[in-house]
Amino acid sequence: MTSAPQDTFTIIDGRKISTDIKAEIIQKVIERKALNKKVPHLAIILVGDDGASQTYVDFKVKACKEVGFHYTMMRFADTISEDKLMKHIDQVNRDEDVDGFIVQLPLPPNISVERITEKIRPDKDVDGFTNRNFGSIVSKNPLLLPATPFGVVELLKRYNIPTEGKNVVVVGASRLVGAPLSMMLVEEGKATVTICHKYTKDLKMYTLHADILVAAVGKPGLITADMVKQGAVVIDVGTTRVEGAQYKNGYTLKGDVEFKEVAPKTSFITPVPGGVGPMTIASLLLNTLRATELRNP
Fold first, then answer.
1. Which residues lie below 8 Å from residue 94, measured CB to CB, with a gap of 6+?
2. Under 8 Å CB-to-CB from 205, ≥6 apart: which residues?
3. Neighbouring residues of 137: CB distance < 8 A, sequence distance ≥ 6
4. Catalytic residue among 127, 211, 236, 256
5. Hey, what domains does the chain have and what are their CATH numbers?
6. Is residue 94 within a helix (H) or strand (E), and if so which, with residue range?
7. Which tens digit of pLDDT belongs to each residue from 95-136?
8. CA 89/CA 116 separation, integer angstroms
């Protein structure tokens, strides 16, 4: 792949790629039905009435319908005890008709995210959150990859952006994105990866050396033009809801990157929204299909 001229850049269209992936999954489902094989089945647990969580779950249900997956939606009040929620998770774990299983985060403060996550069977953990799936990234045969990092890697592949031997800087070391993505880029991508976080001093010193810069902090406008070298690939994972009367709906979504000023310096860049976001659900669908194929070839 040749680098884009310095005065041009390509916007990485996550919506288009996610649509392409859904079309591929639809074809797989059609083929499975034709051979009388099991159709993927995703179960979703939602606790409480958090508006953002409800929206995310609605997107996931809609995606299941689009690709022809079966789905089960379970809703519980935020007053449910951790023990009762664990029992429901046990039931889904034992249900052999369910291939993929997620518990929508965040959970109420009285419920341990770690305990709930680890209760999910690793072979059904299509969010890729369990310790087993997290650890399997460094194996030669990972089970189910964390959904958002999986989506980032898929975007790089589908835009033919090479990672081998490249200097990658990941800003953000969370268990959900930064840490697993860094491992995936080292293991599969053969990149040289630097992880930066809130304790990193002189962040700019690191970001300026990045061939590929990934921002996954959730701090709007953190990455500015003076922090990005000419021709870099910039992946913005951050999505923060910023409220204000000047916005049509009373709020807008902003990424970690100052898009307008950074984009002209890049070769490729993801927008917010419409970049990495749609790929998370696409990756969830891919993981559910893989979980089905592993258990029901």
1. none
2. none
3. 145, 146, 180, 183, 184, 187
4. 127
5. 36-122 (3.40.50.10860), 146-277 (3.40.50.720)
6. helix 82-94
7. 999 999 999 999 999 999 999 999 999 999 999 999 999 999
8. 8
Pull the structure tokens for residue 22.
């859904």
β-partners of residue 10 are 268
Going by the DSSP 8-state scheme, the letter that residue 246 receives in this structure is T
Alpha helices in 171-225 (DSSP H): 178-187, 203-207
Residue 42 has pLDDT above 80, yes or no: yes
Closest by Cα among 37, 47, 111, 109 to 81: 111
Beta-strand ranges (E) seen in the chain are 10-11, 41-47, 70-76, 100-103, 167-171, 192-196, 212-215, 232-236, 240-243, 251-254, 266-269
Mean pLDDT of 263-268: 98
Name the amino acid, one letter, at 145.
Answer: L
Model pLDDT for residues 220-253, shown as the tens digit of each residue: 999 999 999 999 999 999 988 888 878 787 778 8
Residue in 99, 104, 236, 256 annotated catalytic:
104
What are the structure tokens assigned to 114, written together?
């770690």
3 state SS of 198: coil
What is the distance between the alpha carbons of residues 172 and 152, in angstroms, rounded to a whole number?
A: 14
Q: Is 22 helix (H, G, I), strand (E, B) or coil?
A: helix
Out of 13, 22, 60, 125, which one is annotated catalytic?
60
Distance CA 25, CA 154 (A): 15
Given its phi and psi angles, is residue 259 left (phi above 0), alpha (psi -120 to 50 degrees) or beta?
Answer: alpha
Q: Is 104 a catalytic residue?
A: yes
Q: What are the φ and ψ backbone dihedral angles of 66, each rounded to 5 degrees?
A: -60, -40
